[in-house]
Amino acid sequence: MTAPHATRTDADAALVVAGLHKRFGGTVAVDHLDLVVPRGSLTAMLGPSGCGKTTALRTIAGLLAPDAGSIAIDGRLVAGPGTFLPPERRRIGMVFQDYALFPHLSVARNVAYGLTGCSRSARRRRVAEVLDLVDLGGYGDRLPVALSGGQQQRVALARALAPEPGLVLLDEPFSNLDAALRATVREDVRAILRAAEATAVFVTHDQEEALSLADRVAVVHRGRIHQVADPQTLYTRPASRFVAEFVGEADVLPGTRADRFSVDTPLGRLGTTRALGSASGAVVVRPESLRLARDDAGSAVVTAIAYFGHDQLVQVRLADGRLLRARRGPAMDLRRGDRVEVSVEGPVVVFDDEPAPAPAVLAPA
Ligand SMILES: Nc1ncnc2c1ncn2[C@@H]1O[C@H](COP(=O)(O)OP(=O)(O)OP(=O)(O)O)[C@@H](O)[C@H]1O
């Protein structure tokens, strides 16, 4: 099957993926996926395990052949009907989860590995340049084993950047680092990619990583992209209920349309960011928008508290038995069993109820 935009390219984009489809036997891993990545941007492909993000990345890299659709890198078709360029002809750099460094080669020789077609002196100059870029100037003679995880990650990035690729692809690049190191290495990687003015796409299942690192986040679910947006838009204006619940914490309440921009919910009448199209729908409440006021006559009860220092997550049970989470400041003094009045700050996001499937019409016997 050929996608409608199978040969589309876009002059301002570093990557244009159109109608990309990939199946393994009976499993559809990537389902007619479209993605445009502007030059110089850092895009995250975010989705739960098994949603197809790694398959999409490997297909973009040329490690897998698509069943349908097209891929253009820097305006050049690299995969599409009748076209398939192998990875080494796509002008891409790749950073894998396990860094994939050659253990028997020095750091400098690892970085030089992809630099073919230039003189020895030019190669030596470029290796020194990218090692400086990743702040490993004096480490060229070391073996990878003599480096920390974060430093190995930076060598892998230097190797990917050395040939000045049109696109850098990173597959779960931080998952092998322990939590303490991850935040600093993420920042380093972002700064290095910026300094190199590289365009990069990385896949992750970690929403915090995607939101804090990327300029744009593409949310993938069942092989398709639900929304591509900057992190703030994604969080405050999710395009689907899946995005709302997958990105950040969210509790969902039933709501019925009151007027154009308000709904009636178990928490009373709430303003909405958009008009509900159907008579009823799902109302997304973020824990940080929930206000709690201790009130002996309140209709809700505190059922659990997790204290984090910078804030606390308070679970409350509403009169109808529903449980909701509220994120409150560190000084709010609540105990389990306290009665509270619950209110919501700011407009809420709503989604129309899915239409019920049409009843099957049986043909007359
Ligand atoms: N080589 C393969 N052979 C058969 N099925 C595969 C293969 N690779 C992936 N799949 C299947 O395709 C689907 C998408 O897998 P993929 O690895 O792309 O997802 P993912 O979102 O990257 O998940 P994870 O974060 O767990 O790596 C899954 O159902 C997976 O089992």
TrEMBL record:
CDD domains: ABC_Carb_Solutes_like. The keyword Membrane applies. Its EC number is 7.6.2.9. It comes from the Bacteria. Gene3D superfamilies: P-loop containing nucleotide triphosphate hydrolases (3.40.50.300). SMART domains: AAA (SM00382). It is an enzyme of class 7 (translocase). GO terms for cellular component: ATP-binding cassette (ABC) transporter complex. Keywords: ATP-binding, Cell membrane, Ion transport, Iron, Iron transport, Membrane, Nucleotide-binding, Transport. Residues 15-247 form the ABC transporter domain. InterPro entries: AAA+_ATPase, ABC_SmlMolc_Importer, ABC_transporter-like_ATP-bd, ABC_transporter-like_CS, ABC_transpr_FbpC, Mo/tungstate-bd_C_term_dom, P-loop_NTPase, Transp-assoc_OB_typ2. PROSITE patterns: ABC_TRANSPORTER_1, ABC_TRANSPORTER_2. GO terms for molecular function: ABC-type ferric iron transporter activity; ABC-type quaternary ammonium compound transporting activity; ATP binding; ATP hydrolysis activity. Transmembrane segments: none annotated. This is ABC-type quaternary amine transporter.
